[in-house]
Amino acid sequence: MDDPIMQDFVNNVDKMNAIADASEGFIWRLKDEDKDEAIFVFKDDSIIINLSVWENLDALFNYTYKSGHIEVFKRKKEWFSKMKLMHMAFWYVPKGYEPTFQDAKHRLDYLNTYGDTPYAFSFKNKFSLAEALTYKKQL
Fold first, then answer.
1. Does 122 reside within a domain?
2. Element (H, E) at 26
3. How many C-beta neighbours within 10 Å does residue 1 have?
4. Which residues lie closer than 8 Å to 75 by C-beta, 6 or more apart?
5. Are 89 and 59 in contact (CB under 8 A)?
6. Contact at 8 Å (CB) between 9 and 79?
7. What is the pLDDT along the chain (139 residues), one digit of tens a residue?
8. Residue 23 counted as domain residue
9. Is 129 a member of any domain?
10. Which run of H or E residues covers position 103?
11. Secondary-structure percent of the chain, ordered helix, strand, coil, rounded to 5
12. d(Cα 94, Cα 106) in Å, to the nearest integer?
């Protein structure tokens, strides 16, 4: 994050967080000061972790693609390498639950192993809460 190439990204983080915090449907996000554990869980100090909870997928989609976030999001190739594996997973959480890095790692691993399922999915294949609750997870 100290590399000069990353400076414009770093300069926009607070703005992106403020847009998320003010977005309709936003519930919670992991604060930056809580992200040190990510290196231990993911065993990689070159990745940036973002955990957030939204009322529904539409709210997250609107933040991602229909808010001021999109201007920075469109520039991601300036700062980040293309990842071979899925790097973003969605899943349902109980009301009031704050997901952990271990939750995120587990869901990403599942998504990369089994593809989109009601247990872990992407914007490409949205699943309902009912589907998630009745899904029989692969072991």
1. yes
2. strand 26-29
3. 10
4. 8, 9
5. no
6. yes
7. 888 999 999 999 999 999 999 999 999 998 876 667 777 788 877 788 889 999 999 999 999 999 999 999 999 999 988 888 888 999 999 999 999 999 999 999 999 999 999 999 999 998 999 999 999 998 7
8. yes
9. yes
10. helix 101-114
11. 45, 10, 45
12. 17
How many residues are listed for the chain in this entry? 139
The total number of structural domains in the chain stands at 1
End-to-end CA, the chain: 37
- Angle at alpha carbon of residue 96, lines to 25 and 32, rounded to 5°: 75
Structural domain boundaries enclosing 24: 4-134
Q: What are phi and psi of 126, to 5 degrees?
A: -80, 135
